[in-house]
Amino acid sequence: xxxxxxxxxxxxxxxxxxxxxxxxxxxxxxxxxxxxxxxxxxxxxxxxxxxxxxxxxxxxxxxxxxxxxxxxxxxxxxxxxxxxxxxxxxxxxxxxxxxxxxxxxxxxxxxxxxxxxxxxxxxxxxxxxxxxxxxxxxxxxxxxxxxxxxxxxxxxxxxxxxxxxxxxxxxxxxxxxxxxxxxxxxxxxxxxxxxxxxxxxxxxxxxxxxxxxxxxxxxxxxxxxxxxxxxxxxxxxxxxxxxxxxxxxxxxxxxxxxxxxxxxxxxxxxxxxxxxxxxxxxxxxxxxxxxxxxxxxxxxxxxxxxxxxxxxxxxxxxxxxxxxxxxxxxxxxxxxxxxxxxxxxxxxxxxxxxxxxxxxxxxxxxxxxxxxxxxxxxxxxxxxxxxxxxxxxxxxxxxxxxxxxxxxxxxxxxxxxxxxxxxxxxxxxxxxxxxxxxxxxxxxxxxxx
Length: 449
Ligand SMILES: Nc1ncnc2c1ncn2[C@@H]1O[C@H](COP(=O)(O)OP(=O)(O)OP(=O)(O)O)[C@@H](O)[C@H]1O
Ligand SMILES: [Mg+2]
Known about the structure:
By secondary structure, the chain is an alpha/beta fold.
């Protein structure tokens, strides 16, 4: 850790300066030295160190002059001042002026190292906190994504962190939570932003055409292939491909995709050789891919290949504080789009929108607001939203034709019960008609505790 820490030692006595530099270098600090305030300022301007260790008395000027300069320009740079024996008032002045610590001469090697170590730590902490504060207070949106709930901040941080890399990203989350928007934001922030972004909805291509669509086909590769077809992956060469609804990809194609992700090569249908591609992959799905793997519908190795960096888009009900912001956003957006001037919402309507649990997430909210802007009918806007809670009796409940994923269903029931009851477990248990013990057991089972 010490390797990356640079310390500027400012001392006008040659022997002293060399000695201090030696002691610090032996601890693997990166040391630079200056013999005057002027020189130190030039060096700080050129390449600011993490910490300055300065003598008080430095020719015409003093360590205080340097300290004032540092505090003006670099609030979080560490600063330790060495004062002569018997000049404690100097030390006090320096601390008032913002020095992090002082050493009274003569000092032991050990006290020098201790003081440095302490200040290095506090500087690192200061920086970390500042980053956190600025991230939390500033990031209200990210390229199209509106929202500043803590769970969205996490999304922004992750998107920003991985945007500069070529790492494969898998975006999960319920329908309408903004998965596609997040993928586009990632692309916009990446170095590939001026190269192609090709979105493929894996669920929308008929299985028989999917291979040619993705990987391309040579002329005559199958009946009807009258000319060479370039696949979407090849078309995205040099750019980014967005594999939307990746959970719907047929198993056979999963194998081919895996090969592409592992080796970076594809073969067109009917092609003998292979083509090397340079494509960044972002995938998204509303399904729980781990469940899909368990059920044998998704290749486990492909899942791991895709899941290098997972990003989870939180459901709207988990970021209720963003609903107001989103309403405003869509009102402005659609009013511009339709050149409409809708009446302001009544407080009853606002409250209804805020209290609703939005199973269709942001998309559902956006659609409702769009309709409201067009029709200006507040009644319709909040229609059916007044009674979001399911009826307590589920007599007459029928399973869907295609069956359900029991565990995912149960997990969602538990999560929703917790959200609706503001995290109060006793109430959530009652809400589901379970004993507290039975409820807790299930929370633990799904690691929701
Ligand atoms: N945080 C957000 N801020 C602004 N608009 C959003 C946000 N999240 C989603 N939207 C809007 O909601 C709609 C749905 O978003 P998107 O298509 O990205 O969701 P999705 O997760 O891909 O949904 P699906 O699983 O249904 O495909 C879009 O119109 C999008 O612009
Ligand atoms: Mg989508």
